[in-house]
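Table S2 (continued). Query chain:
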Amino acid sequence: MEIVTRVADLQALIAKKRTYNSLLGFVPTMGYLHEGHTTLIDKAKSDCKTVVVSIFVNPTQFGVNEDIDRYPRDLTRDIELCRAHGVDILFCPEVIDIYPRGKYTWVDVEGEIAEIACGAVRPGHFRGVATVCTKLFNIIHPDRVYFGEKDFQQLAVIKRVVNDLFMPIKIIPVQTVRERDGLAKSSRNSYLSPTERQAARIMPKLLAAAKEKCESGVSSSVEIVDAVKAASKESPMFEFEYAIVVDDSTFEEITNIVRPSRILIAGKIGKTRLIDNIQLIPCATVVKNQNF
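Corresponding output:
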């Protein structure tokens, strides 16, 4: 595995490694890698001849009073994990390498895809995400890029950017990796104290409540969201932020579930913000599929 920090060095190295009709896979990360990240890397390795991983804590996707300064970092461990999982190139740039000027060129996705849910709670967040991903895609020119489904809204935003800007890239979503109790793997889980980690078990319970309600025949997103809110009260440490149901393909907010959809849930335990989601299949669809 080769480790580079400068854009020009990365591009030169990719040019040497790239061969005709071979695939280049890319896994963008902010470091502090866990099993969710290594699952993305393993998937990329199974699909592509060359795999690039980036580690870059992107300042433009953090808002005022957010946690960039305390965001967990352990580059030595990250390097060991990348090497163990067969990464070919590890890109670890400094902020000045990605944002060389004081003023930026922005990629701004308009519409509710970037304005609801996390977009409403974290203004400007997805502008930062879209901008840094566009920069990385233009530096690396990958054929395939791998994202986890835990950050489902981020995944939808990046798909929109790639489609709208005609980038010749295939975005590969990978199923969320979870702890034994169902909590989604996340670098931010390291913020949780032992007591808070126990309280965080409410998140998979909220997803289960939404799924159970949908599979019982309820198609109203309002009723499903109400069920999630009610279930969230089981944990006094959990500060409910939002629950919203969107179309699984278009990411448009919906009021009635008639095709595969997705409920997005967010909340805080202490100072740690947790997000997660689960697909909701209409009851009629489930019955139809079971009686083929």
